[in-house]
Amino acid sequence: MAQIASLLAIDGALIVVAGWLAIGVAGLAALHNVRLVGRLLFPLSALLSVALAGIALLALPGTPQTAVLAIGLPDLPFHLRLDALSAFFLALLGLASAGISVFAGGYFRQGEGTPPGLLCMHYHLFLASMALVLLADDAYAYMVTWEMMALSSFFLVTTNHRIAEIRKAGYLYLLVAHVGAIAILLCFGVLQANTGDYTFANMRAQHLSPFWASCAFGLSLFGFGAKAGILPLHIWLPEAHPAAPSPVSALMSGVMLKTAVYGLIRVNFDLIATPLWWWGTIALGLGLATAIFGVVFAAAQVDMKRLLAYSSIENIGLIVVGLGLAIVFNAYRMDALAALALAASLYHCLNHALFKSLLFLGTGSVLHATHERSLGKLGGLMRFMPFVAWTTLVGVIASAGLPPSNGFVSEWLLLQSFLFTGELPNPYLRMLVPVFAAGVVLVAALAGYVMVKFFGVIFLGRPREEKLAQARDADGLERLGLAWLTAGCLLLGLFPVAVLEVIDPITVAMVGKGLAQSGHAGDWLMLAPVSAERASYSPLLFFLLTLSIVLVAFALVRRFYHGRVRRAAPWDCGFPMQTARMQDTAEGFGQPIRQIFEPFFRMRRELPSPFDSAPRYKVTVEDPMWAWVYLRIAAVTEAASRLVGLLQRGRISIYLLYSFVTLVALLSLTQL
Known about the structure:
β1 and β2 (78-82) form a beta hairpin. By secondary structure, this protein is mainly α. The termini are far apart. The chain is built from 24 helices and 4 strands. α10 (237-243) packs across α13 and α12 packs parallel to α17 (427-459). Helices cover 68% and strands 3% of the residues.
């Protein structure tokens, strides 16, 4: 039965895609019916997502399947292929979008500025286009569906299009997306090696010279890096995520960024047959710079969605670090270590899809309940929104990389990969790679700092505004979506060996070896990626031990100290008139990071006057890439436009002279 289901997997995936498109059309038919869209269409979409995840997981260990869709231009049909790599990312799409879609059914109450039916159509076109990107098996199908994904997500980002800042963020995202798409198209042009055949099967058959293979690698890193948010192409991400509705932010951060990671893996481990070791060092450097940049700027943010956006940049950086290490190992044919590094990156892709979606949905519930995004106006929400707080705490622990969470497992696997770089034959790499490992440890520590700030300022302490006492917890579909993603984070953290067994067919196909295949994954209880003598980790035992300690401590306190506790006001340093404003603020929490990394920030401070009745101090941290890169590009572009504008004199005689001079120049060149 499982084999039959595997053989029909690509048909099942296409049926799910068609179902999403049908739901989008149904949304247009019920343009202003919020109840129908939210209570019927989005939950139905979630069921299709679960079906897609199940289909993909059944197909993952099977043989690749192909299909041809006779759509598009004449003699240019869509070639589709479902193999282990695309099945894994389809499962990621299904698992994350199931929770997001059911949450969205309760979240989109008024359409968020766009009629709910139209928003439903954009949302499900986005889902369908991401699935088709993962199934595409030729450059034509890939680029068409890639553009569908970019345009549908643009309309989702600009859902509340009446606000000028949101329109600006959407246009910036669309610009960067199209610049990246040009690089991806050029990459495919290099890979087809002047054969005129743009199918991926033909690209796999080509044997490019080191120069052209390096060109393809550079173009893929630039093109997919623009979509993933790799430094310095990250500039759209902190603008688009705060502008979009929270379910859209979750879908973009949790899933869409992973389509770019999928593209990097597809090109550099599948379509290019001969990786070079120095490609990995470039990816390592860019990934680490991206991770450090993202986590440092996340620590300085005071907008909760912007903080999560920079945190996504940090996590993408860690994923790229793992891919770079896998490329280095693969170039030296150290297949077992390449499989370990690639498995760590894939595991973190899945982890990030779930815990970052959970965090964005948690902020969406807070935003709906309080109408506030600023950390400086929140606080104490755990007593008013306990369900959102506890589920968000699971995502916070995972994002911080604390055991026994799923985030810890993937980061631990990545660090295990670094421990064996001493076996590399290149002495310069052996000297350089430990520096990258130290950088990864720094990122992991700062990520914990960021998540303590995020959760503590929002949910702990006292409410900083009186209106927060009116906040109400999530209910109905929102709770179901949060619970789904929370359960996913817990299961991925407690049973990592089962996840590695799912990932194993991908590493076998990409680098020739798998952890489970070679007996290096461990058993259901103990994770041992290389050998139990070198390193092992049992998340289930760790969880049970921690839980036992907590329960014993609770029982002892109840047994020996119950009734002896005297409650009193905390010591207030001799100042009796305490207010919520005396709590540590988001700005104060991030001050040490701002002090240490001050050269990397562009900061504007608003200082209060001594005569203000309610003095407030505000610090605005700006991204230096705007001034260092993008404003200079804009200035050069504007100067070039003015220069070209000088040619437009508006007189026909001048234009005829241009044509005559051009003709003479071309005739002169032909004579040479």
